[in-house]
Design the sequence.
């Protein structure tokens, strides 16, 4: 399934709009990743463990959104947007959300 941030797909004409679809993932960051990230923050450099967690959460959110679009019979998702938030009393949770418009083509 095509997922794009644009409002259309080149060479395709939208036949119908199936509705807005969402994908949401909330994941916890464990203590070992926090410790490693804290060391990176102190000494400098990138936190590979956090980057991997973010990548996984983003991919899962997109897959969930695609599954919901398929359930509506959509061919693609256009106008996709993504957002990230840190949640929890100790900021130990990461929320990734995405949304877009499920469409069918002629």
Sequence:
């Amino acid at each position: 399934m095509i997922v794009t941030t644009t409002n259309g797909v080149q060479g395709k004409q939208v036949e119908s709009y199936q509705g807005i679809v969402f994908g949401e993932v909330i994941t916890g960051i464990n203590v070992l990743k926090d410790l490693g990230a804290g060391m990176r923050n102190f000494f400098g450099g990138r936190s590979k463990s956090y980057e991997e967690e973010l990548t996984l959460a983003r991919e899962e959110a997109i897959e969930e959104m695609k599954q919901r679009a398929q359930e509506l019979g959509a061919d693609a998702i256009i106008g996709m947007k993504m957002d990230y938030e840190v949640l929890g009393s100790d900021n130990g949770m990461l929320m990734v959300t995405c949304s877009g418009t499920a469409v069918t083509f002629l």
Observations:
- The radius of gyration is 17 Å.
- The CA atoms of residues 4 and 93 lie 27 Å apart.
- The mean pLDDT is 86.
- DSSP finds two helices and four strands in the chain.
